[in-house]
Amino acid sequence: MHLAYPAVLAVLLFCTGLYGVLARRNAILVLMSVELMLGAVNLNLVAFDVWLRDTLHAGQALTLFVIAIAAAEIGMGLAIVLLVYRDRGTADIDKLRGLAEPPPTEDSVTAATDNGTDTSADQGIPARRQTA
Q1: Bridge partners of 126?
Q2: Per-residue confidence at 34, pLDDT binned at 50, 70, 90?
Q3: 26 CB-contact burial (10 Å; exposed 0-12 / middle 13-18 / buried 19+)
């Protein structure tokens, strides 16, 4: 078997997955594109294992680990996407960027210093009160 055939197929699969990750806005399609990329890696692992005639079959064993990790990743990713969809009503990645906490404003910093707590400017976390 020539190594070029599965390698070219793996490159095409990986490039298709990379395009899907970079161009898609739906979180489900991004997860599917990541699975395409992992499938291309698995194809390369098995092809090189056969080409090198490895007696330990390390490429095939590593492929099994990648499949197990990919199954866990897709399960957790799909659960997170479904929870976000229930909460927000959309699976659009651009609209999910609003999940981060906003940086502390000057009003919240002055309000925290007025009531006797000292806040860290970098983190916005109130420090302990010092008793006199």
Answers
A1: 119
A2: very high
A3: middle
Q: Give a three-class secondary structure readout of the chain.
A: CCCHHHHHHHHHHHHHHHHHHHHCCEHHHHHHHHHHHHHHHHHHHHHHHHHHCCCCCHHHHHHHHHHHHHHHHHHHHHHHHHHHHHHHCCCECHHHHHHCCCCCCHHHHHHHHHCCCCECCCCCCECCCCCC
Average pLDDT on 27-38 reads: 94
Distance, in Å, from the CA atom of 33 to the CA atom of 114, rounded to the nearest integer, reads 51
**How many alpha carbons lie under 13 Å from residue 72 in its C-beta half-sphere?**
5
Q: What are the distances in angstroms from CA 81 to CA 3, 24, 25, 45?
A: 38, 15, 13, 30
Q: How many CA atoms lie within 13 A of 15 on its CB side?
A: 6
Average pLDDT of the residues of the chain: 83
**Regarding predicted confidence, which is higher, 41 or 91?**
41
